[in-house]
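Why do we care about 3D structure at all? Because function follows from shape, and shape follows, mostly, from sequence. That is the central idea of this module. The next example makes it concrete: a single protein chain, its amino acid sequence, and then its structure expressed as tokens.
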Amino acid sequence: MKKIFLVACLLAYAPLCAQVRKATYNDIAWACYFGDHKITNKWGLHTEYQWRRTHFGQHAQQSLARVGVNYKLHERLTLTVGYGLIHTYSYGELPIARLNNAGEAQTFAEHRIYQDASLTDKVGKLEIGHRFRLEQRYVALFYDAENSHIAGKWRLFNRFRYRLRLAYPLTEKWYAHGYDELFIGFGKDVGYNIFDQNRINVGLGYKLNKQAKIEAGYFSQTLQKARLSNNLAVFEYNQGFLVALVYNLNFSKK
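And the structure:
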């Protein structure tokens, strides 16, 4: 009798477990530009733009522009402070930027301040990079309970990021690269979503010259989004490819 009761409890509990998490999936394509431009032996300028797309490039996902000031504290350690402007578009099954009452796609803006500590190392030919990042994200709240547009409402979200990047030369021009980056939210407005997202990128790079290189490869992004009204955790799984142009200029006096 006890065994029958236990089996019945497990069968009743199984559907509840299945409803703990809601998963959504997207095919993505990201085109990126990164540049670290040397001004003096210690100081430099960081510039960056990312055009993120879904459906393998057919629809907008996010636009991100970032600038920063670099300071070389040590031969292996660079500190950066900067600002980013981000616009997120309506995409996917459960979009953050929703449609308005007229069925028109809206975007929401984000002003982001960030601080980096980038540490480089080398083991034989293997290049190792560690990046620690703090972000203060001022996110616009554009919707009320009836999904109508409102203005002037912002909320602060804090986030910590750690990225481990590896690169290994294959020839004089070609190299293999890959990274994994973990995002952790903290602060009073984080709620359940301490884990924010994780990114994985693996691919090949080609050195055009001493200043420029192109990287391309597989890209995977896992995000935890805001919970639904029935308290279901929402996880978004995005897979596709990433292409990046890295172009570093040297304006320092020789």
